[in-house]
Amino acid sequence: MIQLPASPLELINDPLLSNYPIKLYIKRDDIIHPEITGNKWRKLKFNLIEARASGFNRLMTFGGAFSNHIYATSAAGKEFGFETTGLIRGDELSPQSNIMLTMSKLNGMDLIFLPRLNYGFKDKITRQYKNDFYVIPEGGSNELAVRGVVEMMDEIYSEITPDYVCVASGTGGTLAGIVTGLRGHTEALGFAVLKDKGLLWNAVAKLVPESAEFDISTDYIFGNYGKTTPELIEFIKGFEKRNPTIQLDQVYTGKMMFGVYDLIQKGYFKENSTIVVVHTGGLLGRCKELDTQN
Ligand SMILES: Cc1ncc(COP(=O)(O)O)c(C=O)c1O
Predict the structure, then answer these.
(1) How confident is the model at residue 294 (pLDDT cuts 50, 70, 90)?
(2) Which of 7, 49, 231, 243 has the most CB atoms around it within 10 Å of its CB?
(3) pLDDT of the residue at 116
(4) Residues that are catalytic
(5) pLDDT of residue 86
(6) Whole-angstrom distance, CA of residue 278 vs CA of residue 226
(7) What is the CA(252)–ligand 1 centre distance, in A?
(8) Which of 37, 68, 144 to mutate to test the pocket of ligand 1 (most atoms within 8 A of CB)?
(9) Nearest ligand 1 atom, CA 38
(10) Closest ligand 1 atom number to CA of residue 282
């Protein structure tokens, strides 16, 4: 059966927040599985079920050099018995280029390095191989991904009814799932990690009902995708010191958490509100500065 356990919802007891009239919870999707973590499991689950139901035993997907999605797909293939192929942007790369690619290869993924991976090309490959492979889009964001994230929202609502649910946003699939799974007065807030807000907005809008409401902040990108600043690194290290059971990465969850803390301190969230931040994983991509002492 293609299933993993539900993740815990934990209250963050951070002394830095004790004077603010909010409650902050974290949905620990980062600890669902040692390798298929965070939103990756949510987005893959119903795609894997669909692949199996349609008789496919081979998965193909796309990604960049440091793709958490590629790594999670390779791990899901190993865990649930699918062969996996990853088409990677960058023909100068190899499985030795970084830990993400090395681990994907070790999980048995067939890695193919390509000079370009634009929309038209991915579309062509998808059509060409659609009878041999179950093809998952880059980032794993499609309608079935949304269904998996809605399941995460149901888990949250089975425990609390938050005022806000916050998440880091790249391709928009996770935010789309959160928006689709909203009930009552809960608001969804995405923290963009890429500069193009219009692109992200449209990607989310394509996957959610027309009347759905959501917000996207582009104030915490820290320059660009994958870029960091000493302020961000210091924030993450400080957060981890005060909350020693939680680690963050500097590409997604660290930027979102920085944004959430900043907005709490600026009084953005309504008084006495309950906020849930979703831990979307990505910890294999932690940079070494986060683990150096000073
Ligand atoms: C760790 C992590 N968090 C958040 C995201 C953003 O999710 P989405 O692409 O669904 O917006 C991603 C991947 O894209 C990710 O790897």
Answers:
(1) low
(2) 7
(3) 78
(4) 67
(5) 97
(6) 19
(7) 7
(8) 68
(9) 1
(10) 1
Supply the pLDDT for residue 117: 75
**Among candidate residues 221, 218, 144, the one with its CA nearest the CA of residue 176:** 144
Q: Give the mean model confidence (pLDDT) for residues 30-45.
A: 96
6-38 burial string, b = 16+ CB within 10 Å, else e?
A: bbebbebebeebeeeebbbbbbbbbbbbebbbb
How many angstroms is it from 170 CA to the middle of ligand 1?
Answer: 5
Closest atom of ligand 1 relative to the 281 alpha carbon: 1
Q: Which residues, listed in sequence order, are joined to residue 53 by a DSSP beta bridge?
A: none
Residue 135: pLDDT over 70: yes
pLDDT band for position 277 (50/70/90)? very high
Domains 9-35+143-291 and 39-140 share a fold: yes
**Nearest CA among 248, 245, 246, 176 for reference residue 212:** 176
From the options 3.30.10.20, 3.40.50.1100, 3.10.28.10, 3.40.50.720, give the CATH code of 9-35+143-291. Answer: 3.40.50.1100
- Mean pLDDT, residues 238-264 taken together: 98
Residue 205, number of CB atoms within 10 A of its CB:
15
The binding-site residues of ligand 1, defined as CB within 6 angstroms of any ligand atom, are 38-39, 68, 139, 141, 168-175, 252, 280-282
Report how far ligand 1's centroid is from the alpha carbon of 280 (Å): 7
Look at residue 220 and tell me whether its pLDDT is greater than 90. Answer: yes
The CATH number assigned to the domain with range 39-140 reads 3.40.50.1100
